Amino acid sequence: MSTHLYILQALAAFFGHLAAPSSWRGPVIERVARQVVFAGVDLVPLLVLIGAGLGALAAVQGEFWLDHTKRADMLYAVLDTGLVREVAALLSVLLTLAANGAPMCAEMAMMRVNREVVVLRCQGIDEFAYLVFPRMLGLALACCCGAVVLAATALLCCSAGLTQAHGDVDTFEVLRRLVLELEWNNVAWMLLKSAAGGLLVAAVACTVGLSAGEARTEVPRMVSRAMRVALTWVTFAWFILTAASYMI
Amino acid sequence: MVHPDRRELYDMKPGASQPLPLTLRGLTFQALAPAPVNLDLGVGQSTALLLPDEQLRLLEALLLGSAVEAGCEVRFWGVEPAGGEGPLAGQVARTFSPLFGGGCWLENLDVDENILLAPLMRGERTGVARERALELARRLGLEDLPDTRRAQTAPGTLTVCQWVRAFMDERTRLFLMIDSLRKAPVAAIQSLASECRARRQQGAAFFWVLPLEAAGHAEVLEIDTVLEPLQHLKPAGTT
């Protein structure tokens, strides 16, 4: 069966497990928590740094936009939509892919090479339930948290940038207007897109990693392949979700 | 829910004609042995197969469902072991040879977490599972469950921990004790013998695959039949 079918199968199995919380045993919940810490918390400083840069850039672009259009009434809504709905979610997923996709795939492939997966099976432990499901859930949660951190930092820095440009408004007043203009559906789409991205990255990394053979030389090949396949899936999912977000 | 392949194991009636816990047909090691090994392991029996390391590895892979030896057939209650004991898990417990590689233990868990993983994934409460494992470990000569990684644990302790892991499931009716005595303390082997005796009295069967050097332990472990198909390949200096 092709890798893409296995990925679809993993996604279907994920929602099956998600719908049955009674199957989430202690080690599974612990693994989810570890995944959130590893993929989310450890990435916070980088997210803040990138969010700050993004916010500063958005403030400069906002100024240009204001100079050309003179539509101050729409400035906050445009910044909100751009930063929260589109960029924060996309950057969060791409950062997660770069920081966690490759290690996750390598870990799975090494477990396969070291025959740890066989040991699990011999003990009657479902490898999807123990290895794949918690990583998918953990990465989806980490991606959502990452997008929130990124968006919040970007909005804060964008407010500070706009304040500096105008000089007559307080930073927190600008931030308050940005937050007030924020529509709930922008936040919902941001969370949905980042969760979907996290799920896809983990599904691809685990599926490709677990398809490794028994030689250690397979590991780098699998990691490279996982990166390509994950980028393909994330791109397609992005097109579909973005189109849907503007149609609904 | 009982796996379809496993349902018949639950439905067995005493006295009825049942498939044997383990059957092995036509085990050969290319040019090394003149006659193939055939084995029928019945309920409550204990049989050992002594092999040199290389052949031991091959047989271990075969018992895991890897088709390394064409022509040889292995069945657990008539079911083929395909990629581990998926459908037979709980019925079959095993130890893994250190020759198997580092994979006997999950590297990102401590040894005690490894031992408790299967019971916890079956839904057992952590406290209960730990208590049971600790009791078993003490019977087998360990003072405590090691909360260290595999690499930081003494090989003899790891061997005993493998026994604890294998004996944790009360439902087990076939034990595949693969190279399970390596570096084990002698006193612990005696404790293992009494644990095995108790499980055999409950109807469990034991299949030991051991290196040639372990032949001396067969009597202590009360093994009924010892097969040495490659006896002529014994390392120099052993009897």
| pLDDT averaged over residues of chain A | 88
> Which structural class do you get from the secondary structure elements of chain A?
mainly alpha
Task: For the record, give the distance between the C-alpha atoms at the N and C termini of chain A, rounded to a whole number.
Answer: 35 Å
**Main pleated-sheet profile of chain A:** none
Share in helix of chain B: 25-40%
Structural Rg of chain B = 17 Å
* Oligomerization category of the chains in this entry: heterodimer
Structural class of chain B: alpha/beta
Hey, roughly how much beta strand do the residues of chain A contain? Answer: under 5%
Termini gap of chain B: 50 Å
Summed up, the helix count of chain B is: 6
Beta-strand content of chain B:
15-25%
Biggest chain pair contact, residues each? A-B, 20 and 28 residues
- Number of DSSP E strands of chain A: 0
Please tally the helical runs of chain A, counting DSSP H or I stretches of 4 or more residues.
9
Spans of chain A of at least 5 consecutive residues whose pLDDT stays below 50 are none
* Count of extended strands of chain B: 8
Give a quick rundown of the structure:
Chain A is an all-alpha fold and 248 residues long. Chain A has helices spanning 3-18, 26-39, 44-69, 72-113, 116-122, 127-166, 171-181, 184-210, 218-247.
Task: Characterise this structure.
The complex is a heterodimer of chains A (248) and B (239). Chain A has 248 residues and is an all-alpha fold. In chain A, 86% of the residues lie in helices and 0% in strands. The longest helix of chain A has 42 residues, at 72-113. Chain A starts with a helix and ends with a helix. The model of chain A has no long low-confidence stretch (mean pLDDT 88). Chain B is globular, with a radius of gyration of 17 Å. In chain B, strand 6 (174-178), helix 6 (186-201) and strand 7 (205-211) form a beta-alpha-beta unit. A five-stranded parallel β-sheet of chain B has the order 5-6-7-3-8. Classes of the chains: A mainly alpha (248), B alpha/beta (239). The A-B interface holds A 25-28, 107, 111, 114-116, 118-126, 129-130 and B 64, 83-86, 89-90, 92, 94, 96, 100-108, 113, 117-118, 120-123, 126, 165.
